[in-house]
Amino acid sequence: MYRYDEFDQQAVDERVAQFRGQVGRRLKGELTEDQFKPLRLMNGLYLQLHAYMLRVAIPYGTLSPRQMRMLAHVARKYDKGYGHFTTRQNIQYNWPRLVDTPDILADLATVEMHGIQTSGNCIRNVTSDPFSGVAAGEVEDPRPWCEIIRQWSSFHPEFSYLPRKFKIAVTGSEHDRAAIKLHDIGIRVVRNAAGETGFEFWIGGGMGRTPIIAKKIRDFVPKADLLDYATACLRVYNELGRRDNIYKARIKILVHEMGLEKYSALVDEEFARSQGTVKLPDAEIARIQAYFAPPAYETLPATSTAFEARRFEDKGFRTFVRTNVHAHKVPGYAIVSVSLKAPGVAPGDASADQMDAVADIAERYSLDELRVTHEQNLVLPNVKLDDLYTVWKQLSAAGLGSANIGLISDIICCPGLDYCDLANARSIPIADELQQRFADLERQYAIGSLKIKMSGCINACGHHHVGHIGILGVDKHGKELYQLQLGGSGAEDASIGQITGAGFPPERIVGAVETVIETYLSLRHGDAETFLDCYRRVGLAPFKAALYEAR
Amino acid sequence: MKVLTANRLDDGAVVYIGKAAPWVEDLASALVAVDVGAEGQLTETAATAVKARLVVGAYLMPVTVEDGRILPASVRERIRAAGPSNRPDLGKQAPAPALPR
Ligand code: HEM
Ligand code: SF4
Question: What is the A253 CA–ligand 1 centroid distance (Å)?
Fold first, then answer.
């Protein structure tokens, strides 16, 4: 893992000291709220429905056990004993007091964490594939590139006041677990015909009120040009992006309105002019890559008899392995997904005790590493097959053994009206009801791979546009109403879901989802045809008919 | 009918202008303005409190009063007055005493 050098640490420590001064001046009346608000937002501190909310970045989703314990400590000491892992590889605390936030940030700084780049119109916390560095078949670990982007983008003077927020995601795999096509810039590490690795660049993707799939702008950007090319993309946006209308200010609108060709020509022009400005020397790349060198894996056989025996004997374990355990690139190891979607718990929420428990497990059984995912789950990236059974037992004891990754109960859900100041409707209680309705694991397996994603307003923090089934909460004359969207995907086959028609009141939305599921089950070509494949084959019409004609 | 609500500056807690005290945490103790004149007074009190750095984000919210109980008109304000609907153990609805700080 990357470790801060003295410059990183100094920058973060200085930021904490500045913020302590700013909070002090606000409380003494030397700053008005209008003056203070942008300052607190630059440190991830929002004011929400019930209290302040602090957002802490987990750069590219990689976390050490020590950092996870600090997140638990913050939850326990300054908050109400839990935190919410978000779709942006952040954690949010819902109840911090303003007067405590300088101390919280000081505590976080001791483990190289902060709330910088979690708000405002800057380049936000860069996100990545939670399986980075361990996924079987990966071209290359994208995290050194994420770290390079982090160092370049933090406090970047030119890009601190962009027309609007700017999100970059990087993956090193063909299979996209980072939703790169729904980001302002999406980057995929690829290998060219000459065998060199470089970057495929996607531009102008995003959700919110105008969802747009990113367009490919370059097939291959050489490594040395990464930052120059990104700079050119950002510079054109910074100059031409709209600042007069917040709804049209994202780069997706600029690229969409001017067309890829025209935008791309301007980027090329700028790139030709400035290429070589932000040099990325090989020595510096190598220095950063060294931090991400593979941990000390043992040489193990590709199979484990102990693991196979346990899997045969124990049905619960077998079920867990089926959904939550994934292929690792090193023989004898596996990647374990830890579901934060237990019934009755808001998707993405984890208690301080659970955070400590996963930290302990990661330390003992996952070579000291943890990941957080944009699907609001956690990952133990380096578990020996021999240890899988023990890990499952310990996770289960901590209430983290849910065997539902990728199934209908593995719901992405934003905080909605239960916490969020911008919300139009609640989302958590709907997620809870869906989980209850589909509690039967056998039924979940019968339904197969299915991603439900839900947001409490059009900002789409819960990725509803790209859910296989998406749910959007709206406000109709003071009443909560839920729109249904079908056929979205945030993966390499990205697509935006189609709205089925009129929305459903809270007491009918779960039934509507069930109707969609029943329709799918009746239409699918065999058990292997997933919901998304089936939907793409048959289209919206039969679902629409089932939803509205029987009314 | 309206109640004036805001968030307390130092800890962010949801508060209301009260009948007996200037700022109360419990909606039941809030002062209900029944006419434009009373609303104006609440708004003035709030503006002073914002200047004095007691609260931020003050605004009037519509309510109804049924059997002496003050009910917020919107779902949003009902949730602000109680706490997250999925966590009855948190927020104002949480069993007293409030969590130690
Ligand atoms: C509770 C406080 C939050 C506020 C005030 C907030 C605000 C916003 C706003 C205004 C947008 C729309 C941006 C645009 O279209 O230009 C947005 C988008 C987004 N937010 Fe949030 N959000 C909050 C919480 C969350 C949470 C909890 C998550 C994760 C679960 C999240 C993840 C995202 C994502 C993924 C997007 C859409 C991606 C994009 O198009 O940029 N946010 N948020
Ligand atoms: S989608 Fe809307 S309701 Fe949900 S967290 Fe984002 S801003 Fe809040």
Answer: 17
Q: Which CATH class is domain A6-109?
A: alpha beta
> Quick one: A14 exposed, middle or buried, by C-beta within 10 A (0-12, 13-18, 19+)?
exposed
Judging by DSSP bridges, how do beta strands B55-66 and B69-72 pair with one another?
antiparallel
CB contact under 8 A, A97 and B11: yes
Domain residue extents for chain A = 6-109, 134-289, 305-397, 412-548
- Tell me the pLDDT of chain A averaged across its residues: 96
A459 lines ligand 1 (CB under 6 A): yes
Structure tokens at A435: 């989980």
**Distance separating alpha carbons of residues A52 and B7, to the nearest angstrom:** 9
- Tell me, using a 6 A CB cutoff, whether residue A414 lines ligand 1: yes
**Which CATH architecture is the domain A134-289 placed in?**
2-Layer Sandwich (3.30)
Q: What is the tally of helices (H) and strands (E) in chain B?
A: 2, 5
Per-residue pLDDT of chain A (551 residues; tens, 9 = 90+): 888 988 899 999 999 999 999 999 999 999 999 999 999 999 999 999 999 999 999 999 999 999 999 999 999 999 999 999 999 999 999 999 999 999 999 999 999 999 999 998 999 999 999 999 999 999 999 999 999 999 999 999 999 999 999 999 999 999 999 999 999 999 999 999 999 999 999 999 999 999 999 999 999 999 999 999 999 999 999 999 999 999 999 999 999 999 999 999 999 999 999 999 887 888 999 999 999 999 999 999 999 999 999 999 999 999 999 999 999 999 999 999 999 999 999 999 999 999 999 999 999 999 999 999 999 999 999 999 999 999 999 999 999 999 999 999 999 999 999 999 999 999 999 999 999 999 999 999 999 999 999 999 999 999 999 999 999 999 999 899 999 999 999 999 999 999 999 999 999 999 999 999 999 999 999 999 999 999 999 999 999 999 998 65
Shared fold status for A134-289 and A305-397: no
Ligand 1 midpoint to CA A520 (Å): 31
Architecture of domain A305-397: Alpha-Beta Complex (3.90)
**What is the value of pTM for the model shown?**
0.95
Residue found under tokens 């608000």: A37
Residue A58, H or E segment: none
CB contact under 8 A, B50 and A33: yes
Residue A49 contacts B, CB cutoff 8 Å: yes
* CA A360 to each of CA A84, A183, A368, A394, A395: distance values in angstroms, whole numbers, following the listed order: 20, 33, 9, 10, 10
Mutational pocket test of ligand 2: of A207, A461, A474, A485, the residue with most ligand atoms within 8 Å of the beta carbon:
A461
- Cβ–Cβ < 8 Å for A472, A485: yes
Q: Is A328 in the pocket of ligand 1 (CB under 6 A)?
A: no
Provide CATH code, domain A412-548.
3.30.413.10
Atom of ligand 1 nearest to the CA of A207: 40
Query: Pick from A88, A162, A87: which is nearest to A123 by CA?
Result: A162
Whether residue A429 lies within 8 A of chain B, CB to CB, comes out as yes
Kindly identify the ligand whose nearest atom is closest to the C-alpha of A49: 1
The neighbour count for residue A111, using CB atoms within 10 Å, is 17
- Give me the residues paired with residue A127 across strands: A169
Pocket mutation for ligand 1, best pick of A168, A459, A464 (most atoms within 8 Å of C-beta)? A459
Q: Is the CB of A181 under 6 A from ligand 1?
A: no
Using the Cβ of A406 and the Cβ atoms of chain B, whether some distance falls under 8 Å is answered with no
